[in-house]
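This protein record is not my work; I was only asked to verify it. Where you disagree with what is written, explain briefly why. This is what I was given:
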Amino acid sequence: MTTNQYIITIAIISIGSIITRFLPFVIFSEKKPTPKFITYLGKALPATIFSMLIVYCLKNVSILGGSHGLPELIAICAVVLIHLWKKQMLLSISVGTVFYMFLVQVIF
């Protein structure tokens, strides 16, 4: 890519990011109540996305070979326990990821 193409690409990506960040504030002002469908999506989508992430992460785990899926199972239990304890999704995902990498690299 040339320098001009890099600049154009970065500009388009920046404009797209800015639009997606500010568009909800333009569409849903404080004066009008948020539609019930959008409120429902705000409650349902985080759990749905988290479930899809779990399925994606476990799709290639072989129970019959290697470590029999033990590092994954232990890391999932750690994530669940930390989330039940602290109720902070970012913390539980981060600690679970680091713990899983430790298990895979050092233990198993």
